[in-house]
UniProtKB/TrEMBL annotation:
This is WYL domain-containing protein. Residues 145-212 form the WYL domain. It comes from the Bacteria. It comes from Labedella endophytica. InterPro entries: CBASS_pafABC_assoc_protein (IPR051534), PafC-like (IPR028349), PafC_HTH (IPR043839), WCX_dom (IPR057727), WYL_dom (IPR026881). It holds the Pfam family HTH_PafC. Residues 5-127 form the PafC HTH domain. Residues 239-313 form the WCX domain.
Length: 331
């Protein structure tokens, strides 16, 4: 074996041994597909390898060490002292748990086909954390059945038909080719090629019902469309609303601001223009920015939010709670 190959083999063997507190020579040889004697030679080489200290000379703590009794008597490998490698940064148990939860969430999305890769990454995060991560699970919601149907539509390259309730309370049957499922705060949205509109539209899952995967193949137009990065896209028919809000809240409205000019009012507040399909969507946006945003204009927009706030106060006074912000049609 050439020197370069030996180095590559050692660089693979050391992490493997780190992941296994104690492993037999036979198991290591089977894992790497090499003769057992090659594993033994590599282990002996690891035991005389290390990083010199400040004196540029090798001291005992500057070298790897193994359990020699186990190696020589039981043909087992256990590294008892690591050099340099164990000083690399590791995720804390809480960080690893948070990342694993995020990966579980992503693995449930319809467009996430390679779930084996996600599962492998979660396992590596568990092993590589500084301590055992807390067990986490992303709970199932009421929309799981709808997501499963959308996932089946994507996997079979078939169109999806469903009833959609728009902001006017009208229900309409739509046929689309799902392209991407995304969430914004607690809401789920489907971006899809709409056969009737011959354009990309965004639908809220909780306003979709009667989902059914049809026998109609996904259209070529849907397969070729390039989705923009932002969830909502401006339309010539959109309404413009001027908001004044804290600069720290700007990331919360990025999807609605687009290329709007941002005008500073004072050191902490900025005035922007958002584009919305209707004023019902405005009440929903403002409800999510409680205390952070002020509607500046136009007058109709201010009146809409004022009416919604008044209804909320009236409901609280009678013990009914806050009314749900209006939701809008697909764009």
């Amino acid at each position: 074996m050439h020197a370069q190959d030996k180095l590559a083999f050692l660089l693979s063997l050391v992490p493997y041994l780190m992941d296994h507190d104690r492993v037999s020579v036979a198991d290591a040889a089977a894992h790497f597909g090499v003769p057992p004697e090659q594993i033994r030679q590599a282990v002996r080489l690891i035991a005389v390898s290390g990083v010199p200290g400040e004196t540029t000379q090798y001291q005992h703590d500057d070298l790897f060490d193994i359990d020699w009794d186990a190696f020589e008597q039981d043909d087992e490998i256990a590294i008892t002292h690591l050099v340099a490698i164990d000083e690399s940064p590791r995720f804390s148990a809480r960080e690893a748990a948070a990342l694993i939860a995020g990966l579980q969430y992503l693995s449930g999305l319809p467009e996430q086909a390679d779930r084996d890769v996600v599962g492998s990454l979660m396992a590596k995060l568990s092993r590589g954390a500084s301590a055992a991560p807390s067990e986490v699970a992303v709970g199932s919601g009421d929309l799981d059945e709808a997501l499963a149907t959308i996932r089946r539509s994507v996997a079979t390259a078939r169109s999806l038909a469903f009833d959609y309730l728009n902001a006017r309370g009208e229900r309409e049957r739509r046929t689309v080719d799902p392209l991407r499922v995304e969430s914004l705060d607690a809401d789920w949205y489907v971006r899809a090629w709409d056969h009737g509109r011959q354009a990309v539209r965004t639908f809220r899952l909780d306003r979709m019902s009667g989902l059914d995967v049809t026998d109609e193949p996904a259209s070529a137009e849907g397969r070729d469309v390039v989705l923009p990065e932002t969830l909502f896209q401006a339309s010539p028919d959109d309404l413009s609303v001027e908001l004044e809000l804290s600069e720290a809240a700007l990331p919360l409205v990025d999807d609605w601001i687009g290329g709007s000019e941002r005008r500073r009012v004072d050191p902490d507040r900025v005035r922007v223009t958002v584009r919305l399909a209707h004023y019902g969507a405005l009440t929903r946006l403002v409800a999510g920015l409680a205390g952070l945003a002020t509607v500046v204009g136009p007058p109709d927009a201010r009146a809409t939010v004022e009416r919604w706030a008044g209804d909320a106060l009236a409901n609280y006074a009678t013990g009914g709670g806050s009314p749900s912000p209006a939701t809008g049609p697909a764009r």
